Amino acid sequence: MGGVILPDLGAEILVPVCAIIGIVFSLIQWLFVSKVKLVPGGGHAAAGNNSVVKNGHNDYLIEEEEGLNDHNVVLKCADIQSAISEGATSFLFTEYQYVGIFMVAFAILIFLFLGSVEGFSTKTQPCTYDPLKTCKPALATAVFSTVSFLLGAFTSVVSGFLGMKIATYANARTTLEARKGVGKAFITAFRSGAVMGFLLAANGLLVLFIAINLFKLYYGDDWAGLFEAITGYGLGGSSMALFGRVGGGIYTKAADVGADLVGKVERNIPEDDPRNPAVIADNVGDNVGDIAGMGSDLFGSYAESSCAALVVASISSFGINHELTPMLYPLIISSVGILVCLLTTLFATDFFEIKAVREIEPALKKQLIISTVLMTVGIAIVSWIALPSSFTIFNFGTQKVVKSWQLFLCVAVGLWAGLIIGFVTEYYTSNAYSPVQDVADSCRTGAATNVIFGLALGYKSVIIPIFAIAVSIFVSFSFAAMYGIAVAALGMLSTIATGLAIDAYGPISDNAGGIAEMAGMSHRIRERTDALDAAGNTTAAIGKGFAIGSAALVSLALFGAFVSRASISTVDVLTPKVFIGLIVGAMLPYWFSAMTMKSVGSAALKMVEEVRRQFNSIPGLMEGTTKPDYATCVKISTDASIKEMIPPGALVMLTPLIVGIFFGVETLSGVLAGSLVSGVQIAISASNTGGAWDNAKKYIEAGASEHARALGPKGSDAHKAAVIGDTIGDPLKDTSGPSLNILIKLMAVESLVFAPFFAAHGGLLFKIF
């Protein structure tokens, strides 16, 4: 078999040390951001100049230190920032109260269902995969699965909340730095994103590592039981992410649609104009949807892919022979990923400086390329030192012999597939390329042609990502069965810290632009924040592409683990039990999307009516002599999202339970396969259609080329058509699309956690008839 170079103790030290390095690095980045003071006075300018040296101080970007000492502007920015922060915090606290009740109820369900598999017996039982050995009782699995579920849920909530806090802390600081140049503002926004990325990646890894070691005190040599119980961690992470994504998505888009339709189309006032009553709710929404939701979502993917890999490894030679270092291979990949991302971040903040607007987007894209290239080297080293030269992997009842270089290729193919999906997404959603320019051009003849072109673009953008996912599935499964697919998903997520930094950068820049507009800063500053925001829009689309691609691989790996755990030898599509599951599963993403779209629509309806009411009934609002009632709009978004997130959440959480209990594991395997196949397609097309419409509107507004100027300016018929497209795309790209990847992962991980119960007591209807 060949020995392992890295000793067990080395693996036990490497993982937590890398996690702690990640946490320390994020705190250092936060310190740099906090040097930008939100109080008027000379301290601000001094802090700005000393904090980082190379920051793109090109003369033409510094403009005559414009308004640098304008105390009034700084105070206004501080006020707006605190209003956004308070709105986001109060929404998340309200959301977490509801989610907390669900969490406790679901934890009790897990305990009751898994405990009842052996009638709450405390006797040891024959092992699932090796009946000759005895393993810990089913009651232990119930208790530890419940604990790991609560751990995952708590970590997910904390990840989202910390991300939101950092983003609301950084937004006004980015605005103030924009007065000194686009390079300064970019660094502040990017550092803030890095704080979130590294905190989340390191926390997820550290909590999982500690949980494994604590559970080991009880489980001892029963590794199959130990890692089966750990799957609850992924379930907890994803179930919180679902509510965060759906609730946050409904909140942000209700406010956005209301603000755009009345403000831009009807009243012809600029985006983020302080006269618009929905403007604070819109900016709060960026933080609760795009930051807190995205943070929880990617944490969930990371937790699940780790759990799927660990479950399969525990019943392979690593687990059977109790080889700790190879067993922890998935965690070691993530640990090295943190170090790689740390080095990559320095390229954006310290090694190179941004001097002009056109350098922003390439700098963000370079982050993806650098992290992928460095990570490939990292994976090669990890595969060399942490794996025996050959070993066996569990493959649906048999053990498949695998070489360490084959496993390296599995991880690498996932990593590079992620990069391909990212760049294809960018091609279809960035206004630097022809697809979005064609959509913008179609606005000449009105909103209808814009909608047709946008939908066509979304459908077309699915082709290459699906091929990339298909190739990575084929390669990784051929080499290392389901374990290969799980580590391919981990490969895609190994650079999660950089991915999240780029992703969080977008909403922070968006908020910074909003604050600049509301504080009445000059047109030049707004242009800079717009440039940051436009780049952020594309990178957010890339982030969503990553999330969807990794979700496809993760849910397939979880599906494989579920099939093994439920003792299904083959999933035969020709049997009616499986086929009905398949066709119903393929329908679920449509049902879910219908619910989330309708929720955004009905919440936006209330918002539009309220914004219109204020414009019509508050004297002096259009003239800017009186302030609008922001609080009512914030309340409308909060109430709507809390109420509307429950039905789609219930649909996803209850489907596996109902199908498993009444129709059994075979039908459930069909449901999982169907929802995976259709959910990935809809998620990619919805995200890219929305992103393309948004950037087509920005292309016309920026007027950077001859073609764009012919379509503009703001307020022209073509621009109004583009705003309508953007408004339709909002719920697609920020609510339905991103939530679908949680649907496909969550149903798979839930089925895996409840598999012992379904295998023992499921399929009641088929037993009766």
UniProtKB/TrEMBL annotation:
It is a multi-pass membrane protein. It is an enzyme of class 7 (translocase). Its EC number is 7.1.3.1. The chain crosses the membrane at residues 13-33, 98-117, 137-164, 185-211, 223-243, 302-321, 327-348, 368-386, 406-429, 450-475, 481-502, 546-568, 574-592, 645-665, 742-766. It is found in: Endomembrane system. Its main location: membrane. Pfam families: H_PPase (PF03030). Keywords: Ion transport, Magnesium, Membrane, Translocase, Transmembrane, Transmembrane helix, Transport. It comes from the Eukaryota. The keyword Transmembrane helix applies. HAMAP family: PPase_energized_pump (MF_01129). This is H(+)-exporting diphosphatase. It comes from Hevea brasiliensis (Para rubber tree).
